[in-house]
Amino acid sequence: MVVLAVVGFVGVAALGGMKKVRQDVQAWCEKNLHDKDEKKDSKGVTQKDIENIRKELKGFDKDIWVAAERVSSEDREIGKLEKTIATYEGKLAATRTELDARAAVIKGASEQVKLGHRTLSVAEAKTELEADVQAFVRDQESVDALKSALAERRSKRDALDRHLKALQQQQQALTLRLHKLEADLALLNLERAQTNAPQADTRGAKVAELISEKEDAVAIERGARKLVTPPAAAPAAVPVKNDKDVDQIMAPLKGQPAKAVKPDTTKTGAQPIAPVD
């Protein structure tokens, strides 16, 4: 008996546990199916989607600022390099003028050359001129290298400027598309409201239906009353009271007696009417 009781208790517990498992599984399925339905419904565009896009679009401001700073930095470096090159070219031009003048003097000398306060032999003057010419060539090569660097910087600056303009144009185009999307979404929301709005359950529809019912009831009652109510009797004529005698009534005519009209007795044989005194 004890064994049977234990077995029975275990069986009941097992059945209870299975029931609990089934409930958990059912709850899990309902939750996941509900989540799937929500995800399916969430595929439609909402105002939150618009806000997320606007945040992403806002990131262009930072990118554009960084690109603009790089262009500005290149402009500043280009300006400094142009100033350096201009300074070196001015010095080179003066040095070249001096070298040409010295060479002309050396060419015209036979034994000695007077250069400023110094007097040198032609060989010494040529050696010194050669060294200065080589230094000038090296300086000219340095200026040429600076010009090459300047050209590269200008090319880089143009590329950065094109990138900046491309970002600005892209931001503008995407902003216009976002505005159009917002307008389309507003129209879509209006269509959604018109499509999903219940026609018979809205407050306005209920009020209109009640008014129509009462209007019909009033019209029916008025029509019925017209059918069952007899027409009203015409009001009795009020007797006319006149205390004047005939002579008083005819008094205005006595001052201007009417002319009697002679009837044509030839045809009818009627006697003429005597005038009234």
Unreliable stretches covering 5 or more consecutive residues: 1-7, 9-15, 33-42
CATH-level-2 architecture of one domain: Orthogonal Bundle
Structural class: mainly alpha
- Major β-sheet strand ordering: 1-2
The number of strands is 2
* Overall outline: elongated
Rg over CA atoms: 61 Å
- Percentage of helical residues? over 70%
Calculate the terminal CA-CA distance, rounded to whole Å.
154 Å
CATH topology of one domain: Helix Hairpins
Order of helices and strands: HHEEHHHH
CATH top level assignment of one domain: Mainly Alpha
How would you characterize the largest beta sheet? 2 strands, antiparallel
As a percent range, the share of strand residues is under 5%
Mean residue pLDDT: 77
Number of helices: 6
Give a topology summary:
Elements: H1 2-41, H2 47-108, E1 112-115, E2 118-121, H3 122-196, H4 203-228, H5 246-254, H6 265-268
Antiparallel strand pairs: 1-2
